[in-house]
TrEMBL record:
CDD domains: GGDEF (cd01949), PAS (cd00130). Residues 290-342 form the PAC domain. Residues 374-507 form the GGDEF domain. Residues 234-286 form the PAS domain. This is Histidine kinase N-terminal 7TM domain-containing protein. The keyword Transmembrane helix applies. It holds the Pfam family HisKA_7TM. Keywords: Kinase, Membrane, Transferase, Transmembrane, Transmembrane helix. The chain crosses the membrane at residues 12-30, 37-59, 65-87, 99-118, 143-167, 179-200, 212-230.
Length: 507
């Protein structure tokens, strides 16, 4: 056998040399699954190119046919290697193509290779005259050829390309460029090779365009892997993790416009990710607060409570490229915090504020009143006769009396006035913007409460009250003590007047 090289084989030989160089550069990374898949694609292309070169240069029809058959080792394994490369690139963990799945994908190619090498017996792939030496330009391809050698491999290539499209739409910059290269590396050779099979000339001479274009299109991919770390696992693996987060992730550019969101963020916004791109986040959420790096912000969206954390995205030189905002639903935590705070500041029996709440709000109101020319009235109320009620009718009846009196206090005064149970039978009122001498109005309202309580089945009820005013009568504890002293003075007056339940007021 002799081999004759012609100028028309130059593109194929150059493609073979380039592919061998790319495969050699991958050998030191053979331990990485992604690089192994890429090396498998390159080796498949090498087999295809070598078979094509040898079948075109060798003399003798039988040798040309046999070398031509070796091309199919590459033709049929490249699509499986390509699909494995894509799946490992998109979903590196866990292994997306375990051995059983790989063997299942190779089942059809292995069966096809067996049929190819035994075609002289059954003629299921190509049909030609029995006993003659087949020539590549004269055989007739059967329907099984088109199904097993054209349709199935191209279906795997298209499947891989479809898998890449969502990732291509989701990423930007170098990551989008590398996916674009991968798509071109499979689409261009597939279209060219289909045209070649249909009799449309693509390359000069009889060279097969598929492996040549495959090799050329993979050159920038291999260069990017070696020089710039393209096809790295981290970005897409990171994106896969982000997509699975229960938190909403918004990536903003330097002008505050959305450039990327995860699925949870799109759900929160009520729009698809594509419709959110380029929109300012404040135009979507009108209640969006000001968020600064290192200082979590609380954001209330309807009944939901979200915690926002912002971090600046920078390039390798430290220049700000944009911001990433992570929104975490903390509604349950906020509700539990509110419940604990409520329990810490609320009297369980009456639902009024307790002594702690009274002291806190007294300090806040006196500070506010001090900044404005306003008067604040502090009223201390003692519910008379509670001990006698507990002794004669039981503590349940006494608790009902306390609860009813607390509810009556809330309903008798303005919404901005606040009532508290300080403990036992002692209550308090904070009455904002109260005029000096307003204790007469307080006395009248408490008298009405007492009458209503008596009509509701609590004939024993009575009340004594003392009132003091901020700022001219004191502040803080001194103000409360003055109101308390006045309440006891008038309790004594009440007791001296006889058993008839009345309300005494003083200021």
């Amino acid at each position: 056998m002799t081999y004759i090289l012609t100028p028309t084989l130059l593109p194929t030989l150059l493609a073979l040399l380039v592919t061998l160089l790319m495969a050699g550069s991958m050998l030191h990374r053979i331990g990485q699954p992604l690089q192994r898949a890429f090396l498998a694609v390159l080796l498949g292309i090498c087999l295809w190119l070598m078979g094509d070169v040898l079948s075109l240069t060798v003399s003798g029809a039988r040798a040309q046919w046999n070398w031509g058959l070796t091309q199919f080792l590459g033709i049929l394994t490249i699509p499986v290697a390509w699909l494995t490369l894509v799946l490992r690139h998109l979903r590196p963990v866990p292994e997306p193509v375990p051995l059983p799945r790989l063997l299942a994908l190779l089942t059809v190619p292995l069966l096809t290779l067996a049929l190819i090498w035994t075609n002289d017996v059954h003629h299921l792939i190509w049909q030609y005259s029995s006993g003659s030496v087949p020539a590549w330009g004269e055989v007739r391809r059967t329907i099984l050829y088109w199904m097993l050698i054209v349709v199935y491999p191209n279906a795997l290539l298209i499947w891989g390309a479809v898998q890449l499209l969502p990732a291509w739409r989701a990423v930007r910059g170098n990551e989008r460029h590398q996916i674009t290269l991968l798509l071109l590396a499979v689409l261009v050779p597939s279209v060219a090779n289909t045209a070649y099979l249909l009799g449309i000339p693509v390359l000069p001479g009889r060279a097969t365009p598929g492996p040549v274009l495959f090799a050329l299109c993979l050159v920038p991919v291999a260069w990017g892997m070696l020089r710039y770390g393209l096809l790295r696992v981290t970005p897409l693996a990171h994106r896969q993790v982000v997509e699975q987060l229960a938190d909403a992730v918004f990536v903003l550019d330097a002008q505050g416009r959305i450039i990327e969101v995860n699925e949870r963020a799109a759900e929160l916004a009520g729009r698809s990710a594509s419709l959110l791109q380029g929109v300012r986040i404040g135009d979507i959420f009108h209640s969006w607060p000001q968020v600064t790096e290192g200082h979590p912000a609380e954001w209330r969206l309807g009944r939901e409570v979200w915690e926002l954390r912002l971090s600046t995205v920078r390039d390798e030189r430290g220049s700000a490229l944009g911001q990433a905002v992570v929104a975490r639903d903390v509604t349950a935590r906020a509700q539990e915090h509110d419940r604990v705070q409520r329990l810490a500041n609320e009297d369980v029996l009456t639902g009024l504020g307790n002594r702690r709440a009274f002291e806190t709000e007294l300090a806040r109101e006196t500070a506010r009143t001090h900044r404005h020319p306003l008067t604040l009235a502090v009223a201390i109320i003692d519910l008379d006769g509670l001990k006698a009620v507990n002794d004669r009718q039981g503590h349940a009846y006494g608790d009902a009396l306390l609860s009813a009196f607390g509810s009556a206090l809330l309903g008798a005064f303005r919404p901005e006035d606040r009532a508290y149970r300080l403990g036992g039978d002692e209550f308090a009122l904070l009455i904002t913007q109260s005029a000096s001498g307003g204790e007469i109005a307080i006395h009248e309202r408490l008298a009405r409460i007492v009458r209503d309580m008596q009509a509701q089945g609590f004939p024993e009820v009575g009340a004594s009250v003392g009132v003091a005013y901020f700022p001219h009568e004191g502040t803080g504890d001194a103000l409360v003590q003055l109101a308390d002293e006045r309440m006891y003075v008038h309790k004594a007056q009440h007791q001296a007047m006889g058993p008839e339940p009345v309300v005494h007021a003083s200021g």
